[in-house]
Amino acid sequence: MNDYRFGNYLYELRSQAGLTQRALAWKLQVSDKAVSKWETGRAKPTTDTLRKLALLYRVPIEKLLQMREEKGPMKIDKIVITGGPCAGKTTAMSWIRNEFIKRGYTVLFVPETATELITGGVAPWACTDGLEFQKCLALLQHKKEEIFTRAARNMPAEKVLIVCDRGLMDNKAYMTDLEFAAVMRELNGSEVELRDEYDAVFHLVTAAKGALEAYTLSNNKARTETPEQAAALDDALIAAWTGHPHLRVIDNSTGFEKKLERLLAEISAFLGEPQPCEIERKYLIRYPDVKKLEELPNCKRVEIIQTYLKSEPGTEVRVRQRGSDGHFIYFRTEKRRLTDVSRVEVEQRLTQDEYLTLLMDADPSAHPIRKTRYCLTENNMYFEIDVYPQWTKQAVMEVELREEGQAFELPKDIKVIREVTGEKRYSNSSMAREMPAED
Predict the structure, then answer these.
(1) Looking at the chain, which terminus has fewer C-beta neighbours within 10 angstroms, N or C?
(2) What is the pLDDT of residues 341-394, one digit of tens each?
(3) In terms of domains, do 31 and 152 share one?
(4) What is the pLDDT of residues 298-337, one digit of tens each?
């Protein structure tokens, strides 16, 4: 949960001073992206920076320090609803609004930017440079989300759900890697930052995969794909979002109404309605062919450092650094086990400073866990394969489920040794104290 109250106060102080974000960044010798993160509640200034701000704005440093530490009551979650052509997103938006308004949420919708541009006459085929169209799309998408977030944090509401009809990573499905790198430079961000700034991503599979009789072009003037093109685009969109900490794929294995009911159930589980419950199965597997995994478009490599903190009996608390290529995000997670398969889990996004502060409360009896995670989307499921540096013959694979007993297929190229769900020796908290010997 981001601190929008403090961020909004910093924004008001800057506005009263008549400074742009860039001008303030120059005065403080920081990046304008850092200023943006402070004002959107995604990060907080250091104490040294607060001293400079106090002098600049002529406010007591004590007030800034106090507000930085206070936690406001507002909870804002930003999710993405994505999917291939003719997946049911339009109807899903109506269902989401009706369901979560009943649950006490203020629900805001960020419209699909590509459709807005195309129906307004700004289309890839109308531009002389397709890359420029993608840059315009990404810039507009990013600005719209900033505006909706700014509006949300000024609303008299305790729970706000921002629903993005597609997100920034959707654009990657329409570009080469070099083109997407150019778009990231335009936004002054990394792939990890652009992908993981959303709290959760829900992908609705196109009707062209599993419900061909329902596939149509008639309900969206911007849609031109054949069923074959729609299926290929659906795969590319899933690949673009693979690597996000919370990606769920909703397939066409049931009728359309049941499909949307499953979507609502997944969103509810993420939001912790009625309580934040994690259901997973865990497997001990043969050491995977990591080179082959890294070549798959539907697999992403993530580096993780996980540290366990001192906690009460029956509760597990950890902090995690997660990312790649020198770009990381940080989380605090608290877990309480219900059964061998399910747990109550509460996760909180951290700034880097908050993460470093919490490390001072590390459990001295547990060493930090370092692992390379391969996030793999296959058979409409999201698998996480953890490779530990201490092992050369085996690894661990997990899959999260929406309910206990849910049927699913394991990845075809993964060799399972045995299921280890509920075996304490293969829990990360136990492995932080003693890594089991290889089977």
Answers:
(1) C
(2) 666 777 888 888 889 989 999 999 999 999 999 999 998 899 999 999 999 999
(3) no
(4) 999 999 999 999 988 888 899 999 999 888 989 998 887 7
Task: Give the mean pLDDT of the chain.
Answer: 88
Question: 437 in a domain, yes or no?
Answer: no
Q: What is the mean pLDDT of residues 197-201?
A: 94
- Condensed to tens digits (0 to 9), the pLDDT of residues 124-133 reads 887 778 888 9
Are 251 and 283 within one domain?
no
Same domain, 287 and 371: yes
Which of 270, 72, 251, 305 lies closest to 163, judged by CA? 270
The answer to whether 4 and 157 have CB atoms below 8 angstroms apart is no
* CB environment 25-61: b (16+ within 10 A), e (fewer): beebebeeebbbbbbbbbbbbeeebbebbbeebeeee
Which tokens go with 137? 């799309």
pTM for this entry = 0.76
Whether a cis peptide bond, with omega within 30° of 0, leads into 274 is yes
Has residue 264 got a pLDDT over 60? Answer: yes
CATH of the domain at 380: 2.40.320.10
